[in-house]
Amino acid sequence: MDAARSPPILHVPDPRLRLRARLVTAADAEAVRALAPRMLAAMYAAPGIGLAAPQVGSDLRLVVMDLAREGQPPAPMVLINPEITAASRETAIREEGCLSLPGQYADVERPTRIRARWDTLEGAKREIEAEGLLGVCLQHEVDHLNGVLFVDHLSPLKRNMLLRKLAKELKAKPRP
Ligand code: ZN
Question: pLDDT of 91-147, one tens digit each?
Fold first, then answer.
């Protein structure tokens, strides 16, 4: 897929990032088949490891991810209607960033282990237990489908500092 034709990634404070996405139904099959590769192209071009449909202005509960390490072959994942079905009481802190808040990173505390399920493009059901990067990425992307951003997990002071810094940087360097 030509990355030049991939959809632009919305930046904070675009209000579309705050909307709750809707469940993908059978009627959306064609739209999902068209959108998923374009989202993957946008994610790879950014580059990033995860992208949720609201970040490209879509209201579908659709996520793409690729957690392959540098030098490894790509391992694209397309998750339809993903949900977190269980989360550990134990939490862990990990640095997160987001393609909708370019250049901004912060330590975020989340449940260490989660259980997640989703549908695949082929219509199969997947359910996994995840921790580490995969667990964090799943939680971060499902948050996007609910209009939640990683900065919402920070203290108001830290969040406001980060958002001010982002606004300043985006103003200084307008997108191409
Ligand atoms: Zn994000």
Answer: 999 999 999 999 999 999 999 999 999 999 999 999 999 999 999 999 999 999 999
User: Can you tell me which residue has the tokens 């957690």?
Assistant: 67
Distance 141 CA to ligand 1 centre (A): 6
Q: Which member of 83, 95, 131, 141 is catalytic?
A: 141
Count how many domains the chain has: 1
- CATH number of the domain that residue 104 is part of: 3.90.45.10
Say how many Å lie between the CA of residue 26 and the centre of ligand 1.
26
Distance, CA of 150 to CA of 134 (rounded, Å): 15
How remote is the CA of residue 83 from the centroid of ligand 1, in Å? 16
For the question of residue 95 being annotated catalytic, the response is no
